[in-house]
């Protein structure tokens, strides 16, 4: 996964990574928010979910201490990272800045 992860974040279009866990209730809320964000942005940005229990090394590499944690990458560079649940408008606006 780490090689694949590197390919994903090296994209020229912004990539929002959702670090989540299956047992996390706020993560489920965030997931439905991200579906709406995806509808708003279409192909302009990519949204990828990473299960921290399946890929703890990737979560540790990016300092994920709690879930959900969202991170935006473009051309391999971490542009933004924050924990907690975020709303559709905030995330849509954030990603549009990097498109």
Automatic annotation (TrEMBL):
Keyword Lyase assigned: no
Active site: 24 (nucleophile), 27 (nucleophile)
Annotated CDD domains: TRX_family (cd02947)
UniProt site (Contributes to redox potential value): 25-26
Keywords noted in UniProt: Disulfide bond, Electron transport, Redox-active center, Transport
Domain of life assignment: Bacteria
GO MF annotation terms: protein-disulfide reductase activity
Domain Thioredoxin residue range list: 1-99
Cysteine pairings via disulfide bonds: 24-27
PROSITE patterns per the UniProt record, alphabetical: THIOREDOXIN_2
Keyword Transmembrane: no
GO cellular component: cytosol
GO biological process: cell redox homeostasis
Annotated site residue numbers, Deprotonates C-terminal active site Cys: 18
The family this protein is said to belong to: Belongs to the thioredoxin family.
PANTHER family: GEO12009P1
Name of the protein: Thioredoxin 1
Organism, as annotated: Chryseobacterium defluvii
């Amino acid at each position: 996964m780490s090689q694949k992860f590197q390919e994903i974040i090296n994209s020229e279009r912004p990539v929002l990574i959702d670090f989540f866990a299956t047992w996390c209730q706020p993560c489920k809320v965030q997931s439905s928010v991200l579906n709406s964000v995806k509808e708003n942005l279409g192909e302009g940005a990519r949204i990828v979910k990473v299960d921290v229990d399946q890929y703890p090394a990737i979560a540790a590499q990016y300092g994920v201490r709690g879930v959900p944690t969202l991170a935006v990458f473009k051309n391999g560079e971490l542009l933004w990272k924050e924990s907690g649940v975020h709303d559709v408008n905030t995330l849509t606006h954030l990603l549009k800045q990097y498109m």
